[in-house]
Design goal:
The chain is α/β, with parallel strands linked by helices. It contains 3 helices and 20 strands. Helices cover about 10% and strands about 25% of the residues.
């Protein structure tokens, strides 16, 4: 996952590149001047807003660069607008009972270059397409644990977000256009877990946002729609009241490598060919689906990259005999109460005079020891 350290390092790298180009132009004594100059700018910038704490990290030659983390969490709703040092990379406004924020609050010196903003654990009911419009370098935005009910189109249009946390809000319908971004370059990870989402839709003319991972667990989805063509690698639909997976649900998700369909109390049926359009899928999680009792072998058609299948604590008692033939890349299956099966190459010398024959077999174990694959599959 994307880390703050990573962000700081990216920033540091940019600064370093700037310094190197500066070195190229000025060289020698001029370099000393610029280092001195930068240090003095930093020194003049130590002011920290009352109630907040400012933590300065310095980098580079003679600590010539610094990035500041401004922590204004738990101060109270009079905290905005808060002025921040020019070199602020991380602003924490969590736990402040804020009921609204707007672009005039989130602008001014320091905001334009902010990389990381934390607005979690407030009482924000809505945002507008202009709320974050001044944050032109924002890469991580935490809006979790608020009261957001909807996201207007282009909500995050101007910010090159990489990580967006919207978990624990009250969102109901999601319009994919909300995530359209101006640059549309960087892949974004979006967390929508624990909302009230019952529909996802995308207008055909909207550009496809570059969403790489989407966590929709713990919502009210009864079916899967609106995700076609999004370059997802990770999709989580755990804990949604979906009763049937239909054969068109995952069309156009050719880059998907990890799909989680776990803890779905209502899930009873998976239509044949449901995963036929997922040639890159490596991990498929069906665990803890107690009402899912059978899987036909045609369910697995097309899963040519699947390596891991998780059926732990599901209601499925056996798989059709030739299931493995559809799954050439399969490495392990987890099963039943706690049975792990690993595909192993077995050598036998009986069949061929000229050498050994290698056969792929499933070797399975439970808590008490080896079990035969025939018994469990
Ligand atoms: C922005 O929010 C602040 C604080 O909530 C408020 O005082 C101000 O009037 C708002 N400005 C606009 C343009 O809505
Ligand atoms: C935002 O603040 C909350 C509460 O202080 C914290 O739990 C969370 O990890 C922070 N989010 C980020 C992305 O740092
Ligand atoms: C989304 O947020 C929830 C709650 O904080 C967390 O448990 C989950 O791991 C996150 N999902 C991803 C994919 O990071």
């Amino acid at each position: 996952m994307y880390s703050r350290r990573g962000m700081v390092e990216t920033r540091l790298k940019n600064l370093r590149e700037r310094l190197i180009s500066l070195q190229g132009v000025t060289m020698g004594i001029c370099l000393w001047f610029s280092v001195l100059l930068l240090t003095s700018v930093v020194a003049a910038n130590k002011f920290c807003f009352p109630g907040c704490s400012c933590e300065v990290e310095t980098f580079g030659l003679f600590d010539s660069f610094s990035l500041t983390k401004v922590d204004c969490s738990g101060v109270g709703n009079h905290i905005v607008p808060v002025s921040i040092p020019l070199d602020t990379s991380y602003l924490d406004l969590s736990n402040n009972k804020l009921t609204s924020v707007n672009e005039s609050v989130l602008s001014g010196p320091g905001y334009t270059t902010l990389v990381n903003l934390n607005l979690s654990y407030n009482q924000l009911v809505k945002i507008s397409p202009t709320t974050f419009s001044k944050l032109r370098y924002l890469e991580s935005l935490d809006l979790s644990h608020n009261l957001l009910e909807e996201l207007p189109d282009h909500s995050f249009f101007y910010s090159p977000l990489v990580e967006l946390d919207l978990s624990f809000n009250r969102l109901q319908g999601i319009q994919i256009g909300a995530f359209t971004s101006k640059s549309n370059g960087k892949a974004i990870h979006i967390n929508l877990t624990n909302n009230l989402i019952n529909s996802i839709s995308r207008r055909p003319d909207d550009p496809v946002p570059n969403i790489q991972s989407l966590d929709l667990s713990g919502n009210q989805l009864r079916s899967v729609h609106g995700l076609q063509g999004i370059p997802l690698q990770y999709l989580n639909l755990d804990r949604n009241p979906i009763s049937t997976i239909e054969d068109h649900n995952f069309l156009g998700l050719k880059g998907l490598t990890h799909l989680s369909l776990s803890k779905m109390e209502n899930l009873r049926e998976i239509a044949p060919h449901s995963f036929k359009d997922l040639p890159a899928l490596q991990i498929l999680d069906f665990s803890n689906n107690q009402n899912l009792k059978t899987l036909s072998k045609d369910v697995f058609v097309g899963l040519s990259s699947l390596q891991e299948l998780n059926l732990l604590n599901s209601g499925v008692a056996s798989l059709p005999k030739d299931t493995l033939q559809h799954l050439p890349s399969m490495k392990s299956i987890t099963w039943g109460k706690n049975i792990h099966c690993v595909k192993t190459l077995k050598e036998s010398q009986f069949h061929l005079q000229n050498g050994v024959v290698r056969r792929e077999v499933l070797v399975c174990r439970d808590d008490r020891g080896a079990v035969s694959a025939q018994d469990v599959l």
